[in-house]
């Protein structure tokens, strides 16, 4: 058996950790939404500003999960944390920005080009946290609980002891991110099952 | 104050999205690719090549040129002045 020990929702309106909203978007603010969260949460990682929005969403979600479950950083060897992510739009948001960078500005942007693959976010998280375990980024038609259940069980039956999972859908104004931490051993935590995963996705945050 | 060097600092901050850096944080002799300096990486080097073409109309075609020119603001300004003759 394995357990969901922390989770984070992030959409256009709010950011929530373990069901409690920690930040609401200020539409009057000059800063983009993800930068608002970065500042409010007092993160200090200058590379954040160079990332594309897909990687920024992965960074914010994973940092918030680390705060909610600090054992992720202390209880595992660097090859025992797996990363299992998916979405349906792949890196299309950045692909379109890259096309515009050379169509409108006359020259392609190298810093945008490096983000024109969806799995780059996994590299960002691996470098930042020194997580050298298994990783996978799948492009699927929609969020499929069984993909995460089956793939996580396979990895947890091998060398992985924890898996940071995420659905990271970013396209234009549409933001739909849901990250969750699965651990083999935990007390007082929710069982990692299809029903619980569907319930967390469907209900969203519970406090205002 | 050397306007070219000040302009370069602003252009680097904008082109490389160094949002937590101000022009005052970059000394003329700060090493751009040293972790104790600005800590730029290989992608930033490509952005500097784009910057030189975009703002100064200079193409860097030989890798050795960039290696020397991108050491600091001083060397970038010197490179631009030499190329513009």
Write up this protein:
With 208 residues, chain A is of the alpha+beta class. Chain A has a single domain, classed as Peroxisomal Thiolase, Chain A, domain 1. In chain A, 37% of the residues lie in helices and 25% in strands. Chain A contains eight helices and eight strands, in the order βββαααβαααβαβββα. Chain A has helices at residues 33-40, 53-68, 71-74, 92-104, 110-113, 120-129, 145-156, 194-203; strands at 3-11, 14-17, 20-24, 81-87, 135-139, 162-171, 174-183, 190-191. In chain A, α2 (53-68) runs parallel beside α6. The longest helix of chain A is centred in the first third of the chain and has 16 residues, at 53-68. Chain A is globular. The model of chain A has no long low-confidence stretch (mean pLDDT 94). Chain B is mostly helical and 85 residues long. Chain B has a single domain, classed as ACP-like (Non-ribosomal Peptide Synthetase Peptidyl Carrier Protein, Chain A). Chain B is globular, with a radius of gyration of 12 Å. The A-B interface holds A 46, 49-50, 105-107, 109-111, 114 and B 16-21, 43-44, 46-47, 50, 53-54.
The CATH architecture of chain A = 3-Layer(aba) Sandwich
Task: Please state the average pLDDT score of chain A.
Answer: 94
CATH fold assignment of chain B:
Non-ribosomal Peptide Synthetase Peptidyl Carrier Protein, Chain A
Strand content of chain A: 25-35%
CATH class of chain A: Alpha Beta
Q: State the oligomer.
A: heterodimer
Tally of separate domains of chain B = 1
Radius of gyration of chain A: 17 Å
- Low-pLDDT stretches of chain A are none
SSE-based structural type of chain B: mainly alpha
Mean pLDDT of chain B, as a whole number?
Answer: 92
Number of helices of chain A: 8
Number of E-type strands of chain B: 0
From the coordinates shown, what is the CATH architecture of chain B?
A: Orthogonal Bundle
Largest interface: A-B, 10 and 13 residues
Terminal CA distance of chain B reads 21 Å
Order of helices and strands of chain B: HHHH
